[in-house]
Each structure stands twice: as C-alpha cells, then as structure tokens.
Amino acid sequence: MPDDRLQKDLLRGSLDLMVLSVLAEGSTYGYGIQKRIAAVSGGAVRVQAGTLYPLLHRLEADGAVRCRWDRAGGRARKWYELTAAGRRRLRDQASQWEQHAATIRQLLEAALPGRPSTSS
Fold first, then answer.
1. pLDDT (tens digit, 9 = 90+) per residue, 68-87?
2. Alpha carbon of 34 to those of 16, 115, 117: distances in Å?
3. 80 forms bridges with which residues in the sheet?
4. CA 13, 18, 23, 28 torsion: positive or negative?
5. If phi over 0 gives left and psi between -120 and 50 gives alpha, with beta otherwise, what is residue 42?
6. CA–CA separation, 31 and 52 (whole Å)
7. For 11-68, what is each residue's pLDDT tens digit?
8. Phi/psi at 43 (nearest 5 deg)?
9. Nearest 5°: CA angle at 30, between 97 and 56?
10. Helices 49-61/30-40 angle, 10° precision
C-alpha cells in the first residue's frame, strides 16, 4: 500500500504545474480541470474542489490565470485561462520539475541497479 502522506506531499508539490498544464491546452472550467487531471493520471490523481478552487483563486490573484463567466447552456460557469505570466510560470515550473525528476531518476538508478530505466 503506498504511503498516503507521500502521495499528498507529491500532489501538493505538483498541483500548480498540473493545473497550469491543463490550462495550457485551452480555457476550461474547474470541473474540466478535475476531469482532465483524473483522465491523464488514469484515475490516480483526483483533485477535490476544496483544493482546486482556492488554488485557482491564488493563481488568478498572482496574475497567472484570468477568468470569465459564461452562461452557455443556461448554467453559469467560471472559465479559466492562462495569461502570458501563467505561460512563463508554466515554463519555469516545468523546467524545475524536469531537473528535479532527473536528479531523482539518477539517484534511483544508482541505488537500484538493474531496475528498468524510464529515461530515453
């Protein structure tokens, strides 16, 4: 059984990057972000609304995301999209994440010889 605390820490450390990545694909509303992350992770990552919406509000306050209301279909939905600052933030965070992941990969390869490598 995986360590739930480790899973929560990993999610907390990568959720901004996940949300920014989804929004880089195009504007969407909160539930769309939740569905996309769940789909890409094969259901392993399920972001609760109580976690997602405060994060979106913070990203909006930071200028990384802007929002607009739309009443298409009779139901009001708040749509989110990346700003230019959000795209820069995504690039910066992606670069940091890739460097971090490469370091962990190298350490694991040294610690667990013979383990199948995922690097290309």
1. 999 887 889 999 999 999 99
2. 13, 33, 30
3. 28, 67
4. negative
5. left
6. 9
7. 888 999 999 999 999 999 999 999 999 999 999 999 999 999 999 999 999 999 999 9
8. 85, 0
9. 55
10. 110
**HSE value, Cβ hemisphere, 13 Å, CA-based, for 1:** 2
Structure tokens at 95: 């670069």
Whole-number Å distance between alpha carbons of 27 and 24: 8
* pLDDT above 80 (res 98): yes
pLDDT bracket for residue 2 (50, 70, 90): low
Q: From edge to edge, which strands make up the β-sheet containing 77-82?
A: 28-29, 77-82, 65-70
What does the CA dihedral 43, 67, 49, 61 come to, rounded to 10 degrees? 110
Residues forming a β-bridge with 67:
80
Contact 79, 70 (CB under 8 A): yes
Alpha helices in the chain (DSSP H): 4-24, 30-40, 49-61, 84-111
CA 61 to CA 120: how far, in whole Å?
38
